[in-house]
Amino acid sequence: MLVFLVIAIMLCTASGASAQTYQNWYPRSITPPAGYQYPCALTALPDDLAGIPAGDKQFINHVYSSLLKALQAKMIMLSALQSSSGFSAAYTKYYGVIAAERARILAERTPAGLEQFRNQVLSAIDNQAVFFDKAQKLRQQGKSFEEIMQLPEGRTASQLLMGAWGEMSKRYPSWSPQVKDSIYHHLCALDLF
Questions:
Q1: Residue 142, class by beta-carbon neighbours within 10 Å (0-12 exposed, 13-18 middle, 19+ buried)?
Q2: Cβ distance 73 to 98 under 8 Å?
Q3: What pTM was computed for the model?
Q4: Which of 24, 31, 42, 87 is the one with CA 20 to 30 A from 74?
Q5: How many C-alpha atoms does 5 have within 13 Å on its Cβ side?
Q6: DSSP 8-state code for residue 44
Q7: Angle, to 10 degrees, between the axis of helix 54-82 and the axis of helix 177-190?
Q8: Residue 134 carries which DSSP code?
Q9: Residue range 170-177: mean pLDDT, rounded
Q10: What one-character-per-residue DSSP string does 90-117 give?
Q11: How many other C-beta atoms can be found within 10 angstroms of the C-beta atom of residue 42?
Q12: Which of 114, 12, 121, 106 is nearest to 53 (CA)?
């Protein structure tokens, strides 16, 4: 009996069936953290990822799962900077989430042709982390929220996210409207502006 099971698993693997399935990391609920609202019309990443080639689906599912966590951490950090104290503690929590999600994205097998997208997303996350680090230090020194929003790393991150969106648009011209809107709004919600 065990021999037949092993043979069946080997046949499925050899036929490519395992390449078509993957562990779905995307959460069932995208409810924002308590007390927060998404800055744009964010919708959940559709399970079927219609219009995305099978070989890219795991990467998209896993990366956008990380981007959802990153954008939620960004929302909380941005809100903390609008308050009157607790900037350093907020940054420590934010950075813990961002570092973990960045590492997950970097560890994910990247399909050929998606390297530019991955690099732009990682650079955007890095620029936002630098932005928030500088911003929390400046807020501790008494600078206003309006002043910290002028830090150049925020704009650089925004430009990189727009570039990442461009890469997605070029690669998937036949994706469904639901997939397109969800992917766009994940990147939009991660943006600072």
A1: exposed
A2: yes
A3: 0.88
A4: 24
A5: 2
A6: P
A7: 30
A8: H
A9: 97
A10: HHHHHHHHHHHHHHHHHHSPPPTT-HHH
A11: 20
A12: 114
